[in-house]
Amino acid sequence: MRKLSFLGHFGVALAAAVLAAPVSAKVEGDTIVLGSAISITGKYSQEGKNARDGYDLAVKRINEKGGVKVGGKSYKLQVKYYDDESTPARTAQLLERLIRQDGVKFVLGPYASGPTKAAAPIIEKHQIPMVEAEGASRSLFTQGYKYLFAVLSTSEQYLGSAIDLAAEVAKKKGKQPGDVRIAMAFENDPFSLDVRAGVVADAKRHGMDIVIDDKLPRDLSDMTATLTKVKALKPDLLVVSGHTKGATTAARQIGEMGIKVPLVAMTHCESADLIGKFGAKANGILCPTQWAETLSYHDGLFGSASDYDNLFRKTYPAYETVPYQAAQASAAVQVWKDAFERAQTFDTETLRHALAATKMQTFYGPIDFGPEGNNLAKPMVLRQIQDGKFNVVAPSKFASHKLQTLASK
Length: 409
Known about the structure:
The chain is an alpha/beta fold and 409 residues long. The protein contains twelve helices and 18 strands. The radius of gyration is 23 Å and the shape is globular.
């Protein structure tokens, strides 16, 4: 009995010691393995592909440039993927598998805010840091998570520049910003609802009137009910957020129904390939973006934003325009490299502290994580489709081209 008692106490002590021991990244020989449960199929499959291509390009570039240097040794990076089928519950299951079965201890995020919300409690429970690039919902950064870090601007900022631009246009026409009338249609998902909250707050700040406030149908395949109201009420600005499918539906039906609104802004223009699908009919649409190749950002790995744009399109020639989802995914991998090399260890807790202290310049923009893990340093910009190209038109300090209004009232 004394032996059993000793063994029992020893087992408890051993278990406690194992739990208290520092966790190291999965390293196989000279390779650091990162993991991601991301959308390969399902409604976010195109955006998931954009993100994976961005991850893979950064891994390739880093490995070609000498890898990640830790403890006097150079390591290559590798990413292990699972398909979460664009379903948050599946994201959580697969992240558990990556951590528990595959031994992956450092994570790159999934696509979209919903799956990222499902992933965040998992990494927090296992104390595994995650650098994510595709979950922009502001509510991700109000939960007190310590292991979540995001390189992108949060979702409430996405269409703020469109509201400010509408105010500027009103002033140029001799009107007040409060005279602007807004129509809104949003998907009922965490990202789009946060975008909506930002629009409502910005509209209130300018004293603007929201005349239509609709939710898109679940399958995102038809917004004629909203557009019929738009045709009747003739707002000054129409804003839409429904990821790739929602943007495609909006652009198609705006054309089919002959909708004329001075300013139309929608998220996910690039991943929806509005230029390729609709040609000249897409001209004038305003598209918020996390990144553009004309911006003056620069780093030692990719060079300038323009250099990254050229490299990405050379590597993946099927893309006519580099989607911002790809650029920010590449930046997330850069953050991991920077953290490993500053920490000089594979201890997860030390690396978490290194990530929290990140302050770096990249081709994608500045990255400076705040106490909640969100990037405090990088602004959004607004591009407009003009003659088959995405041109930055706002904010004015970043603009490469002048705004073109779709119609006048």
